[in-house]
Amino acid sequence: MFLILFSRLIITLLFLCTVVQLQAQEKLTKREKEIIQYDAKAFINEFELLLNTLASPDLSRLERDEIIQNSYENTANQIFKDAEVIIEDDINPENINAVKVKDMTVDRYLKDLDLFYSKDKVPTINFFDSLASKVKVKEYIYLEVYFKSFFRGEHSVSAKPYEPTERVATIIANRQGNIWQMKIASVVFYDPKVHTFVRDRQGEIEEVPTEKIETNVVAKEDTTGIIANDKRLFMPYWEVGVFLGVASNTGLAPGLRIRYNVQEKLGVQAGFHYFIKGENNVNGILTNQNALEIELNATYDLPLAPIKAYILAGINFMNIEATAVLDSGSPSLSNSHFGLNIGMGASYPINDRLTPFLEAKYTIDNQLLAGLGLRYAIRK
Fold it and tell me: Hey, what CATH topology would domain 236-378 get?
């Protein structure tokens, strides 16, 4: 009976996730899509400007560090979605197409550009021949922008000269009043099998040349990485983890977790807890207590990036067995019941796989459980 109810609950929560996702979609007019396409093509020049700024010999180390960090943190000069953005390496002249690729986090990519690419007072990095895809509406409003890139400088280690390359950036568009704000979510080599819009040239508007946008990009540097292995916007993935908590009515409560991230900020989590203190022989009675739980998680970004907060709500199935230790025998009683969970937590990803977290939850059967744990992401 419990397994049937447990399965039905999982199906219900996944259905709720789908509903939330569909409600997040936004209807766009043809004119709005035209504006997004035009602005996204122009926004690529912000990326070009950032690279040329880092390739200038007139900056101090402090200024270079600030330029890199502010490019992906929540500042007026942010152009990347966050520190999780993946850029396929084209700083090494050996990497010229999608056949041979090396994934780098944005901070690593910009740091390598600063270290290995030649400095020049005249801009030596050029983007040209940009082309925007159709605007796509899913969890995000986004599109892809194809462009050609040519580094006219030199690599400090490799003697191989640079060649023009073809690149594709995924750009997220967020409405801020009447303005569409752009953020780069990934930059990869053009692959004709994947980026078919370039070959077909079936955009929703006529391609209009864009003028460069001159803005001051100020940023900082290396924060080793929070990596999203997937180069696309978001791909659902599993996490498994361990948890060590303390329960107010019992004591230590170690546990196991498995979590399915349906969207970037929405997931379903199942867990198991074993309450160690329940094994103690108290007043001649030996108790054994454990619990299964399933919860819906909603994540929120905090200003103290990359710390993320989340809230949770779900149900638990508590099983308690009590055995009397008597000379005449050991009679036992058991009690199992459902309860409700509500709680909150905070996580701090230290790389693309490992995420330590703190969590506290209250069960409606009058027990508080709090502790810390570690999750491991299973990504493709």
Answer: Porin (2.40.160)
